[in-house]
Design brief:
The two termini are about 25 Å apart. This protein has strands at about 5-10, 20-25, 30, 35-40, 45-55, 55-65, 75-80, 85-90, 95-100, 105-110, 125-130, 135-140, 145, 155, 160, 170, 170-175, 185, 190-195, 225-230. By secondary structure, it is mainly β.
């Protein structure tokens, strides 16, 4: 262990800034190209930003506050940072992805069809900058929605089931992408990690999922080959 910080903070929409290392159920952490550390302080409806002074994590500022307006957040969970500094936040209960610049200024929101207030597994994000894609997990639908970073939905894959060769999942949790574009997805109920071929996006459709898909549906819009099936249960 090199260092640590944090303590239980107040829960709610109007959590005070003090203590500056106070969290309530932090879900994700990401490092920006500027070296800052961004943390989703999920229960307190904000992103907390830190910079290191030696081994000390020094609070810089917070992004967002509880609410549904522009720049506001409700149950932020997954977090991804683009190499240009843009911050993508899974704004769960507002059913959208919120995008900020590196200094916390709000840039845009785009709607995600499929997140619900009673979801047990929180949604997470992964960026593939080479293909200009943002992967967004839909835990209720056991699928992955695929967007451009500008908010255009270009497809999805996944459905409820137990056959990963058909992109079926029982409980999608985490997601990540490597430098070659391969997609890694954890299935918490199956106790496995799956590796999929890179997604090749068709022509973008403006912020819509196919009419054939319901909000909680799971139609596979592209066959994505699973390349590895790793049992994570030991």
């Amino acid at each position: 262990l090199v260092t640590q910080w944090g303590q239980p903070g107040e829960f709610g929409f109007d959590a005070p800034p003090e203590p500056t290392d106070g969290f309530w159920g932090p879900r994700d952490v990401a490092i920006g190209p500027n070296g800052r550390v961004y943390v989703t302080d999920t229960g307190n409806k904000r992103i907390r930003v830190y910079a290191f002074d030696g081994l000390a994590a020094v609070h810089q500022f917070d992004i967002g506050k509880g609410g549904s307006g522009l720049g506001e957040l409700d149950e932020p969970s997954g977090l991804e940072i683009h190499s240009d500094g843009r911050l993508f936040v899974a704004d769960t209960w507002n059913r959208r992805v919120a995008v900020f610049d590196a200094d916390g200024s709000h840039l845009l929101n785009f709607t995600v069809r499929g997140w619900y207030n009673d979801t047990v597994n929180r949604p997470y994000l992964a960026l593939d900058e080479t293909r200009n894609l943002l992967y967004v997990t839909d835990p209720d639908g056991n699928r992955v929605l695929v967007y451009t970073p500008e908010g255009d939905c270009v497809g999805s894959f996944g459905q409820q089931g137990e056959d990963p060769t058909k992109a079926q999942f029982t409980a999608i949790s985490g997601i990540s992408v490597d430098d070659e574009g391969y997609i890694y997805i954890s299935d918490s109920t199956a106790g496995k990690i799956y590796k999929f071929e890179p997604f090749e996006a068709p022509v973008p459709v403006q912020n819509e999922v196919s009419d054939a898909q319901s909000d909680n549906g799971a139609e596979v819009t592209q066959e994505v080959e699973v390349t590895e099936d790793v049992d994570a249960r030991g």
